UniProtKB/TrEMBL annotation, chain A:
Protein family (similarity comment): Belongs to the ABC transporter superfamily.
One Pfam family in the UniProt entry: ABC_tran
Residues of the ABC transporter domain: 4-235
Coiled coil: none
GO molecular function: ATP binding; ATP hydrolysis activity
Keyword NAD in record: no
The protein's name: NitT/TauT family transport system ATP-binding protein
NADP keyword on record: no
Organism of derivation: Paracoccus laeviglucosivorans
Automatic annotation (TrEMBL), chain B:
GO CC, one annotated term: plasma membrane
Name of the protein in question: NitT/TauT family transport system permease protein
InterPro entries, A to Z: MetI-like, MetI-like_sf
Highest taxon in the source lineage: Bacteria
Parts of the chain that traverse the membrane: 9-27, 72-93, 113-139, 227-245
Organism: Paracoccus laeviglucosivorans
Amino acid sequence: MGAIRFDNVGRIYGTKQDGFEALKGVNLDIADREFMAVVGPSGCGKTTCLRFVAGFDQPTSGIVSVDGVQVTKPGPDRAVVFQQFALMPWKTVCENIELGLRNKGVPKAERIKKVNDILALMSLTSYADAFPHQLSGGMQQRVSIARAYVLDPEVLLMDEPFGALDAQTRVVMQEELVRLARRNPRTVMFITHAVEEAVYLADRVAIMARQPGRVKEIIDIRSVREAERWDDHEKIEDVMDLESFVHLRTQIWRSLRQEKAMEIA
Amino acid sequence: MRIFNTQNVIVLGLIGFGGFLGFWTLLSVSGLIPSLFLPSPASVIERFVFLLSHRFAGGTLIDHLWASMLRFGGGFGLAVLIGVPLGLLMGWFRLLDDIVTPLFDAVRFIAPIAWVPFAALWFGTGIGGPIMIIFAGAFPPCLINAYRGAKFADPRLIEAAQMLGTPDRRMITEILLPSAVPSIIAGLRISAGLGWQSLVGAELIVASTGIGYMMVQGQGNVSTTTVMAGMIGIGFIGMVIDIALRRVEEAILRRRGLSV
Ligand SMILES: Nc1ncnc2c1ncn2[C@@H]1O[C@H](COP(=O)(O)OP(=O)(O)OP(=O)(O)O)[C@@H](O)[C@H]1O
Ligand SMILES: [Mg+2]
């Protein structure tokens, strides 16, 4: 369970009279276990939308709900992977990942097993006892992802989670995420700047526009992916070569481009 | 080339001390000021060394310093034990903040020494009086810095902890407290300084041992060298306390990968 709904959502920063309208009339439905990628120009309000679902912030108009219940506060049913990692600098990698499980009251033996599994999955085993400042940006991001995955949440909210990774690690993480998403589907809201990444990972891609921030277009990927059997290919580059993939990518590019052109005009 | 490496810093510090002692010596040998008003450094040091092994006003200098440090430990410890948790709680629970802050803001401007009459009244010459006065001096920085440290904790880390379902108690002990540690340690240094200062003031009046008491007796005997030897003892112990706290501060910051 974990269907997300944005119902005519708006957000004004500052006063109602002379405030800045960051979002206006955002409508978006993310079905249970659907992987929704969100793309859009910088500052269009992607992070703001994600923060509503996480419960960190409230819209000034409209309603954001999960499974029909209005979101009012954060909780471990909606795990977040932050744009800036947000790891506790005084906790080791292991302790950072373990915190959510301890809060849930998971017994120690089970915790250790889960943490070790996720460390292995993220190739972090040898850094279990390191502190975040001893890791590279990419490794810190992996810890932040591990911290969210280990909770096995209904809803996974990811804000440019692969932004800090090098190209190779990024590809590995993308392929891993696809495997995970197919094997154990969760509702995912995934913000990214990389159009290829969105097309490769998502069931649908929401394209946002700016001033005021809104959802401009939603592109269905899943039907094409299933019809063209993308998942038969193991490697991301093979999928990216497919004509159907290129076609979708170009379509999204064009939509984003139009947006830029309108801004300049 | 670094001018301010450790060795040079020590040398510069010694130059400061040396200059001060030189000026002091000059003043006292010049005869401009009678030696009763300003004893020479040599006579003060002589007296200091003498007091280390000879009893004056009921004990050696060491005995008096030790008695003072015990009182200081009591008052300062109490201030930390109450001030830091209360500050953190106020930094997390808005209601507590709103209740305590106005009261605290009024009370903290009362100089510790102003409590002396009550300390004498309530505790007589017992250990409670000086402890209460040290507490009055040491408590505000403990509370304020813990509170500020909690208030200025990185909101992204708080959000991350909330997202992980962290309950209030753990939020305070595992998120706010570590966030506030640098601020708390800085507060402890101020707090120790103020506490140690107010201790001597308190002992001038209520105690029957301790470095402040020794100085009062010295004053009674018109032994200015004794008073000054006491001042050296106070300065020295104060410095040792501060250096110890600074070490703790550096160790903690280093552990987090923050340079000092
Ligand atoms: N606390 C705030 N106060 C005022 N304005 C804000 C605040 N937070 C965000 N904004 C504004 O709202 C708009 C949307 O911000 P948001 O961070 O959601 O953008 P974004 O799409 O995530 O951008 P990016 O891709 O660069 O991360 C921006 O114009 C930003 O300046
Ligand atoms: Mg953003």
